[in-house]
Amino acid sequence: MSAMRPSRLWVWVVATAVALAAVAACFGPQTSNDYYDRGVARFKDDKYKGAVADFTKAISIRPKYTAAYIGRGDARIGLGQYEEAIADFDQALQLQPDAPGVHYSRGIAKFMLGRYRGAIADFDQAIRLQPHKAYTYYIRGQAKSGIGQYKEAIADWQASLELANEANDSDLIASIERRIQEFERK
What we know:
By secondary structure, the chain is mainly alpha-helical.
C-alpha cells in the first residue's frame, strides 16, 4: 500500500501543475517580457496591430524597455504609421543612442515619408556604428537618388554590391545591379 502513495502523490503533483499552467494560460501575459515575447511572435506573423498592442503593454509595465519601443516602431512601419514609428525610435535612441538597427529603422520610416535628407543622416549613423550591412548602403543610395545625388547613390550601391557579394546575397545583388545600370544611363 505504501508503494502506491508516491505514485498517487506524483499524479497529484503533475495534475496540479497542469491545472496551474492551464489557469495561467487563461490569464495571458503577465510581465513586460511576456507581452514583449507575444509582440515579437505577432510581428513575425505580420499581425502588426496586435504586436503594437503588446509592445505598448510591455512599455506601460516597464517604461524604459528599449526593445519594446524598437519592436513597436517596426510594427508601426508595417502598418504605415511612420510618424508614430519615428517617435518610438526617438524614444529608443534616448535610452540606447548607439543602436545601429534603430538608426536604420528610423531612416526607413523617414524614407517612406519622403524625408530623404533625414533618412540619409540616420543611415550615415547606422553605417558609422555598423559598417558592413549591405542593405544600409543600398537604401541610403535610394535616398540619395531621391534628392538627385546620383553619383553618390551609385557609390553607395557599389559599396552595397561589394558587401552583398561577400555575403552571397543573390537577390540583393540582382537588385543593386539593376539599379546601378538604370542610373548610369542618366
